[in-house]
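Q: Predict the assembly, please.
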Amino acid sequence: MNDEQKLLEFEAKVNRNEKIEPKDWMPEAYRKNLVRMMSQHAHSEIVGMLPEGNWITRAPSLRRKIVLLAKIQDEAGHGLYLYSAAETLGASREEMLDDLHTGKAKYSSIFNYPTLNWADMGAIGWLVDGAAMVNQVSLMGTSYGPYSRAMVRICREEAFHNRQGYEIIAKMCSGTDQQREMAQDALNRYWGPSIMMFGPSDKDSPHSAQALKWKIKSETNDSLRQKFITQTVPQAHARGLTIPDKDLKFNEETKQWEYSEPNWDEFFNVIKGNGPLNKLRVKTRKDAHDNGKWVRDAAEAYAKKNATRNVA
Ligand code: 3HC
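A: Predicted assembly structure:
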């Protein structure tokens, strides 16, 4: 078959909602878009460990410390899972990490904001993992097999991340006045950046058309953003919190919360590398990678020695 016929067969398979597997023929543009998305998703998981890592030693109780530790360890696993899934498309781990360390690759904008106090641990679990959940549940239906299966596993753990964050917020909202103010302040600072996680609006999303055509994505950025907002606003109100959007209003017809346009100047500035903590986050990741070289070398030497011993 020529490439044209292969493309027709590929698209028929995608349209039958069959999964594309690593050994299947696929258009180079499909492979490239997936490597971009999956590697940046993996970077987001690994960089996403940093804002919360700052609070392990400052957790207010042993229980909170254990829960936060478990969550952060999950994120590391999600990252490794997604790097491995990206490798099934021929991407190299070293190149993906290099792209992160040199600033060539992106990771989720949300992780470039500071975590100022314990309420931010709640806001991250509730809002950031909540937004990630909406996005990742949708990605369970992605046409690429390894990515779809990775999402099934990751979404189960993401649900725990989201619940533990909301529990922190709920506890603070039923605590002292100061704790309530901290929870509201965290919501004020994290609401805007959380709804930006879904990417630019559909009209400004260069990758979406192809991603939707080949079912890499099954929903648009704006529809996922709307889904997140519709599910999260009642959760805030249930805790007596106010969403920091003076134009937020419930449309009785559509049963949706109408919201103000995110601050797109801020969004594009952050993803260009000029967010509050972009440079620190990338430096921290690069330093950790460099400092961990001896571990990788030792593991490689051990594996080589073992391999020769098995051959002998
Ligand atoms: N942060 C950083 N960059 C973003 C972004 C964000 N929130 N949203 C969009 N971008 C970038 C895109 O990467 C693209 O840049 P590139 O060409 O250099 O890659 C550009 O902005 C245009 O955006 P598009 O909408 O055209 O790009 P996509 O079609 O890829 O849509 C996306 C963006 C919705 C984030 C999509 O990539 C996606 O669904 N990715 C997989 C899920 C993911 O990565 N989630 C990140 C959060 S994971 C997480 O938070 C960990 C959890 O445990 C907390």
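Residues 36-37, 40-41, 44-45, 48, 75, 78, 106, 108-109, 128-129, 132, 135, 196-200, 205-208, 211, 221, 271 surround 3-hydroxybutanoyl-coenzyme A (CB under 6 Å). The domain at 3-311 is CATH 1.20.1260.10 (Ferritin).
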